[in-house]
């Protein structure tokens, strides 16, 4: 009966996982197609972007399965279930999850270090007519080979002394394969993923923290009135046309314009072209039924914005409590600020622990949290653009995003979603580490007649629990294999809180967005309007 119960619930879990997988693939396809430029669409970059984003989201979807399996091994009273009483059975289940992480994390490394850079440089070099195919291939190879070489040199260094100098080359090669095939592969892969997660932490601090503030406030504030924008745009057009006529009147007597006047005339004509294009877009927006539906759904948007800002504040409070708990009760920097149990009440951690016994609920909640991070990250990237320090590389606009920008976007989102594993651990450390596991503690019975009798009591699993009584999730092992990464993540959480508060102030000070935000830019061509007109 126990085995049948485990099998049925496992099938239920994998059925839900398969359904979420299909939802993720559909979401990725819609997501990329929404922002992809219709004029510069490229099949290879589109498929690469969809696959990379899907892999990242699927990796995050594996976390609740990991937590569920370690929790499902035990009864609420702290004893192992019959099918999990054997260490070999538990090891097989843990290995299955571990292989899932190995596979997905290997795909992430492949995308970040090889496939996405290859497609990016291929698209960059493809349009150059003066470069032959051989030189393009050599440039692609040199551009991607260096990243893979650095990864191999740092991450997959053998952890034990190699054979002596007198050994043959075959013995050295055999030793290297044995090292990679042994348990040392876990630290190597964990180091690689931790390095990528460190980059993802910077992206989370930059984009996600700002997106968590700008998205709900934009929903609450709404957009400007399209009628008022058209009236204002018409006045601007009249003003620019008057200035152009005034400049042209200077050459009515046959005298040429000065270089300064010619420069001003050129700027005014470019501005007039942008204003007229903006007027056409505003006219389309005024007739568009989506604009009218959006106005009718205005109360719902306000409620959704209030909900999002409350969720953002809940995350910030939970993260602050978690970091404060680490600062007060951890062993310090040398231990990576790892805490032994939860000493302060964390609201999100308690909520997940309460929902965990009913498997779909915590799975849905963590999936929603992950999607919330993705949506807010996209809001931050769309409002800020893709930057390299102080240099803006690309803008993200609906139906006008270049293929290179989409590849950058998906790589950033892939790294952000990768860092969400640690973010979720910071928000709910007890849940991510042990789930709802409990263990039995034998306490001496009180009373004069009790003698040597003992009384079994249950405790929630923490770092002080016996090793054979609590099973740690595989995700936690990946996150905390190296203490110095945990230390950096700890300080990164403080930076995230500060960035969120700064973004909240900036978002509050900004006015309403235009109803055609991002549709018209000075560097657009008139042909780009065709995709909106048709």
UniProtKB/TrEMBL annotation:
GO terms for molecular function: cobalamin binding. Pfam families: LMBR1. It comes from the Eukaryota. It is found in: Lysosome membrane. The keyword Chloroplast does not apply. The keyword Phosphoprotein does not apply. Keywords: Cobalamin, Cobalt, Coiled coil, Lysosome, Membrane, Transmembrane, Transmembrane helix, Transport. GO terms for cellular component: lysosomal membrane. It comes from Dicentrarchus labrax (European seabass). It is a multi-pass membrane protein. One of its GO terms (biological process) is protein localization to lysosome. Belongs to the LIMR family. LMBRD1 subfamily. InterPro entries: LMBD1_LysCbl_Transport, LMBR1-like_membr_prot. This is Lysosomal cobalamin transport escort protein LMBD1. The chain crosses the membrane at residues 12-32, 44-73, 104-123, 188-210, 302-320, 327-344, 364-393, 405-425, 482-506. Residues 230-285 form a coiled coil.
